[in-house]
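Title: Request for sanity check on Non-homologous end joining protein Ku prediction

Description:
We are preparing a figure and want to confirm that the structure record we downloaded matches what your pipeline produces today. Could someone re-run it with the sequence below and paste the raw structure tokens into this thread? We only need the token string, no images.
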Amino acid sequence: MHTVWKGSISFGLVNIPIKLHAATENKDVKLRQLHKKCNTPISYKKVCEGCDQEVTEDEIVKAYEYAKNKFVVLDQEDLENLRKENEDKAVEIIDFVKLQEIDPIYFERSYYMSPDSNGSKAYTLLRKTLEESGKIGVAKIIIRSKEQLAIVRVFKDALVMETIHFPDEVRSIGEVPNIPSEQAVVQKELDTALLLVDQLTTAFDPDKYQDEYRLRLMDLIEEKKADSTVTASEAKRPLPDNVTDLMSALQASLDKTKPKKTTRKRKTLKEKTS
């Protein structure tokens, strides 16, 4: 399993070298966009709106837009130093709380934690401590240049780190429009609704739930493959050796679109411009 982060986590004076591994994966079926005319994949280019030119990665800098079209440019070196300054620090569990105290709206992404070299004993100690106490640990960690609030808990035989949102990242419920105020509910309707809940109540079994749309989409794709309803893109056109040779590119385009039969030989573009 791929390691997405490597470092250490501590509680008190106990330090545990660990690795993080993504606990979930996106199973969405990715569909490509093709040019309808020739079934060639569509590519996207980074273009400067001011210069109307395509730019390369080494021509791009990062900036913060503090007002409309006003930016503070941030040097890559400064960002790298800031990232290293925080990533080099060990992750420390700063609090222990009950899992039930955290609303699910705060949860973001899950990672399996595995012990790194010589960390098995301390890893087992933390796992056993969390199991016996019924608590979870709250910590901070830098992942992909972003500081994350996280909790550490036990899942089956493993420690799991869940990144959670900071309070200011959760929007206020007051911003949600059209939430009805408290209204009187007919008791008969409420009793019927509660009865329905009782009838549908069961033990949670995650294996019984499936992504029906994704399964049907894959069935459709396999069906089209079996029926030979497939397309292939045209071979890429070779680019001129010198892409800046505009005249050669124009001449090649003219030659490609020239009618097969003609009664009169046209002058080439070079002859016209000479």
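Thanks, this matches our download. Helices lie at 76-87, 120-133, 187-200, 212-226, 246-257, 269-273.
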